[in-house]
Amino acid sequence: MTLQPLHTLLVAVLVLLLGYGLNRLIPVLARYNIPAPITGGLLFAVVMLIVSSSTGFNLEFDVTLKPVLMLSFFAAVGLSANLSLLRQGGKRLLLFVLVLTPFLVLQNSLGVLMAWGLDLHPLMGLVGGSITLIGGHGTGAAYAERFAEVNNLQSIMELSMTGATLGLVLGGIAGGPLAQWLIRRNKLADASGHAAEVVHGSDADATQIAPSNFIPVLAATLVAVVAGQALSDWIGNSVVTLPSFLCCMLFGVVIRNVGNLLGWRLNDDAIELTSSVNLSLFLAITMMALNLASVISLAGPLLLILAAQLLLVLCYGAFVVYRSVGRDYEGAVMSAAFCGFAMGATATAIANMQAVTQRYGPAPQAFMVVPLVGAFLIDILNAVVITGFLSLAWVGA
Predict the structure, then answer these.
(1) How far apart are CA 194 and CA 211, in angstroms?
(2) In 315-337, which positions are buried (b, 16+ CB within 10 angstroms) versus exposed (e)?
(3) Neighbours of 109 (CB within 10 A)
(4) Among 6, 8, 59, 113, which residue's beta carbon has the most beta carbons within 10 A?
(5) Distance CA 137, CA 282 (A)
(6) What does the H/E/C string look like for 39-106?
(7) How confident is the model over 97-144, as pLDDT tens digits?
(8) pTM (whole model) above 0.90
(9) CA 271, CA 277: separation in Å to the nearest integer?
């Protein structure tokens, strides 16, 4: 039985609601920042696997809306990139970006080497590298579709989602202990003063999203999607190709910052809502169609790759990130954030920082630098590095 696009969208919304409910009922899911579409989608996939195995009934979905949702998400990510804010990050921002760039190369190199050692396609190493770990579920799903169509890799979508989800958990677990080890080893506890709770803004300070500030964001998102697709098609036959989602993100960056120069301001809360809704629906539709039975045969090799990546992240965070961004408390907090970046996502990085600062005290520079990098810089750097690896014949063949 195949559901039409509207019915598929309805099921995706119900899967999201299921995920939100599970995250509220099971605190450990929220603690490790497992996205609601992943929680609900995995449960839905498990139920469908049981139903299919016991009754032979199979449910398929018309996924026509998936590419639009994916491109809209990356366009909104680009719209969130306010370049004028980058100057406020100062020296730590530059240093953090500089240490992240070679790490992307190391992470993908390790993934490819592990894939070769496990007799897997080299692209599986990239999936077990920065595509899913730095890029998260959205980037992982985007490249997985490309690998499935162009390289005919079986179960690549399922493995991408599994790797990204496990990366979120591992990144959330590893960040806090790494920062604590650095703080104790270098006797940094006094640098933060007394332990402090993270102060959150009141509801009164929140910006109300209304049609008057949401519609301009929607228009800018759609313009970036249309222009990005056109650019990707135009350069599609060149030596170096750019995926459609990266082109859409770059147009989003241009629209946001040119608009700022012209006095046309976009509402940041509306941009965040647009990005979140598109990604959530895209992931929900993706997870609903997972074939879990096909994942089992490759789950073992994927776990071995992730274990090696976690070891690399811990060593790089302790001996490179901490020493490069400042051998102080702020540097330790940013090392915890690095674990979130390297194994999970920006949300995991911020959660790691909050866990540390709630115990040892505030780290204002870290909380300014990390979201700026996570908003779009890391995605651009990651896309450039991945494109470089894919251009190598012995990797992308």
Answers:
(1) 44
(2) ebbbebbbebbbebbbbbbbbbb
(3) 14
(4) 8
(5) 10
(6) HHHHHHHHHHHHHHHHHCCCCEECCCCHHHHHHHHHHHHHHCCCHHHHHHHHHHHHHHHHHHHHHHHH
(7) 899 989 999 999 999 999 889 888 888 888 889 888 888 877 888 888
(8) no
(9) 10
Q: Report residue 370 as tokens.
A: 């990390």
| Distance, CA of 183 to CA of 244 (rounded, Å) | 43
Write the CB contacts of 63 (distance below 8 Å, at least 6 apart in sequence).
8, 285, 289
Query: d(Cα 178, Cα 182) in Å, to the nearest integer?
Result: 6
- Residue pair 137/66 in contact (Cβ under 8 Å)? The answer is no
Q: Which is nearest to 163 in space by CA: 60, 293, 298, 61?
A: 298
- Tell me how far CA of residue 125 lies from CA of 120, 129, 191, 240, 309, in angstroms: 8, 6, 40, 21, 11
Strand partners, 2: 60
Cβ atoms within 10 Å, residue 242: 17
Write the single-letter amino acid at 135: G
Interior angle at CA 130, CA 12 and CA 112, nearest 5: 120
